[in-house]
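Session log. Operator J.P. requested a structure for one protein chain; no other inputs attached. Running the standard single-chain path with token output.
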Amino acid sequence: MKTCRWAVAAAVAVCAATFTVSSLAADKGASEMKHWQVGTPIVTYWAGPAMTDAVAQQMAEGGFNMVWCSEKELDVAQRHGLRAMLFEGLVSPASLDNPEKKAQLDALIDRVKTHPALYAYFITDEPNASTFPTWAKLIAYLRERDPAHLAYLNLLPTYATNDQLGTKGDVATAFNEYLKQYIDVVKPQLISWDHYQFMAGGGDTGQYFLNLALIRKACLKAGIPFLNIVQAASWDPAVRVPTPDEERYLVYTTLAYGAQGISYYVYCCAGHKGAIAHADGTPTELYGALKTLNPEFIAIASQLQRLRSLGVYHEGMMPEGTQALPANAPFRLDPPVAPMAYTPPEKVKGTLLAYFGDSGKPTHVLVVNLDYTHNAKASVVGPGALEVFDPKTGAWKPSPHGARANMLLPPGGGKLLRLAK
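Structure written below.
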């Protein structure tokens, strides 16, 4: 759960990201779109500093591409070619029940909906299922008045209690019911949730892949994209600051399950250690890592955007919610990874193969090294000649071994392959 909530976030305000003016033009700007679409895959953060030109530039250079802004900060975002999520108190269910506030909300929407930087409206964080009808009413109202922009609401993770979720049953049953009610009642354009698993002492909690798997399944059924909020700080003695290699693991596993967005908790926030920047704005080690990883996320997610996630398979350890590679898999590891016993809070090891394609036929596979402490060699054999994607250049290159691709994967890292065209 997030401990740095909007009372803190509002106090420190919110800000910018990495997105060029040309990219905004490519996304057509929300004002030109009849209905909201993801556009360039989302890279953002939770709890950032007040937006200034210097901060906006830092975030842009760090590879972020969606920012949190007040209305008055939208122009700063525009100057730096950044998309913005509007955080304003008027965007509230209470505004719909008060004629004066509703008029003010209408005026706000009319002012901002044509702003080139506007991308989304922030709605709320981690609601109980019992409140979904309230949020649905607000979101439907926003969508009626401004269908071109996202209404963003963030959900609870699997490890929330039944009382927090507002549903009953074991972990998977309660969370699936939570998702079902959210999709049926709120009718979201995107699903977002937060899950943090890196504990002090080196252990990892065990539901990370279960959470990814349940979200993926629900989103595929509903036909909507999702965004994963991952750990990028410590806010409690029981939680550790992730390393750059652990952050790479979060980026590539999020991609493998089919996400079109990633967010980091936190950019900077009082009482949080590590983070992406210090309180004075000085970048940390994680900023340096994300400066490389964020463009990789965007490049790979862009390649996968038009495709459908067809399967996510694990070799090695099998955490809760994961599936083994089928015997007749069209893309396979040669040699395969031997099965390994797994018990949380043990660190997950092994290799992940995520299939993507259209018309139900796998044409792409993202191979991920699940060991975020060591490099891993992986050889993938496909049903035809393979090409390897370079996220730095955006180019596909033929594998020199035809239907086999030999790779050295960094800790937590991955490679995207496809059948040669």
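Operator note: The chain has twelve helices and 17 strands.
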